[in-house]
Amino acid sequence: MKNYNPDVLTCLANLSNDEVFTPPVVVNRMLDLLPAELWSNPDARFLDPVSKTGVFLREIAKRLMEGLSERIPDRQQRADHIFTRQLFGLAITELTALLSRRSVYCSKQANGPYSVCSAFHDADGNIRFRSTGHTWQNGRCRYCGASREVYDRDDTLESHAYEFIHTENPETIFPDMKFDVIIGNPPYQLSDGGNGASASPLYHRFVQQAQKLKPRYLTMIIPSRWFGGGKGLDDFRREMLNDNHIRVLVDYENASDCFPGVDIAGGVCYFLWDRDNPGLCDVVNVRNNKTMHSVRTLNEFDTFIRHDQAASIVRKVCAFGEPMMSNMVSSSKPFGLRTFVRPQESGDILLRWQNGEGPYRRDEITVGRELIDKWKVITSYVGYDHAGNPGKDGKRRVFSKIDILPPGTICTETYLVVGSFDTEQEAKNLVAYMKTLFFRFLVAQCMYSHHITKEAYRLVPIQDFSQSWTDEKLYKKYCFMDEEINFVEETIRTIK
């Protein structure tokens, strides 16, 4: 009979979809990216600025306890040295501070009778939580963008004002202290007070703040959505793609391969930023339980292409210098109508909404009026694939619906207008193009969330829509090799 004695932090890692706890096995993969000599260096300092369970500091402590055994033979002296001089953490809540201390010091009080460190004189040790407030400016926090309407709360409620990013000068948090390694798993997003479950990304602020401290090494695990930018991430994407200090990028296309039981649209990644050694990046892609390496620059395209094979295909397509479909596709709300708008009692045009069609008044349309009397190809703003991830067969469909609106028909923001034409045949030819594996493969390279925005079409070339297009014609035009065709067909699902 086998005994099953799981690490409690492995169990905790599966509890949250919001502020995701990190499994120990993932922590150790991240630690493996760091130079081995750190574990025998008694002067190396480590900071987790977003401690939740303390798992990062705990696993670092294990490595230091072994690596420093010859330098500091006495076990208690070694532990006291590591915990007081080398490991530091900022908890994100008072509760996670207690949990982190329990994980790292084996006691929620660092100076308690059961603490493995005998040198602390206060309960916090080097893992602290300081209640921090938002700084409101024009209805939002100037540091994290939180909505005052949502987060200006009673002091008894959690404010989500994280200490590490609520200052212009993070070096004042631990004065006169330099860190060799900053590591962690920051909170991913914060409700922004928008419609429904709208939320703004938060994780990039922790990366940028950590870089201000100029550690020797920085490694964090964050959503991969920054690859495509959007919603406050465009500047961050440019910074990351043009930063040749990012030497390793490990990308999980399906987040559940990294965080079992957790869905994160677009997947997750972790990276190693090396202050003193710029160069090419070792890109590690994990897909369908297969790992692929490629050494390349990150900024070859203005969006990050996950797969080296896909990058080869995109190079061929872009070499033609053709205008791209992002120049044709409408922005969100192509006719200025929100999702909740419904047909009117009477009108001289038709409105397509989520559940059907009905009359609407032409004179009330102020946006997209030039499209009303065209043949329009539309697709749903929300993609087909769950959380933007491949299905069980490892393939993606991408579009949930493609349709044609005749002249005199408009739509709500449930749909984007992909193209508009004077003739029905041109519209039909665009539909045929959109259904090709080629078209949907290129859109998928820029799609890292539930939504398919105008920018997701930035790698798809505009064709001559006086003729119909098939995959065979497109493969021949762009000189695809057999292995490239196979990669496309292994990635995208056929639709009729």
From TrEMBL:
SUPFAM superfamilies linked: S-adenosyl-L-methionine-dependent methyltransferases
Gene Ontology MF terms: nucleic acid binding; site-specific DNA-methyltransferase (adenine-specific) activity
Species this protein is from: Candidatus Alistipes intestinigallinarum
EC number, UniProt record: 2.1.1.72
The protein's name: site-specific DNA-methyltransferase (adenine-specific)
Catalytic activity: a 2'-deoxyadenosine in DNA + S-adenosyl-L-methionine = an N(6)-methyl-2'-deoxyadenosine in DNA + S-adenosyl-L-homocysteine + H(+)
Type II methyltransferase M.TaqI-like domain: residues covered: 86-259
Keyword annotations from UniProtKB, A to Z: Methyltransferase, S-adenosyl-L-methionine, Transferase
Gene Ontology terms describing biological process: DNA modification; methylation
Pfam families: Eco57I (PF07669)
Xref: InterPro entries: DNA_methylase_N6_adenine_CS, MethylTrfase_TaqI-like_dom, N4_N6_ade-DNA_methylase, SAM-dependent_MTases_sf
Uppermost EC category: transferase
PROSITE patterns referenced in this protein's UniProt entry, alphabetically: N6_MTASE
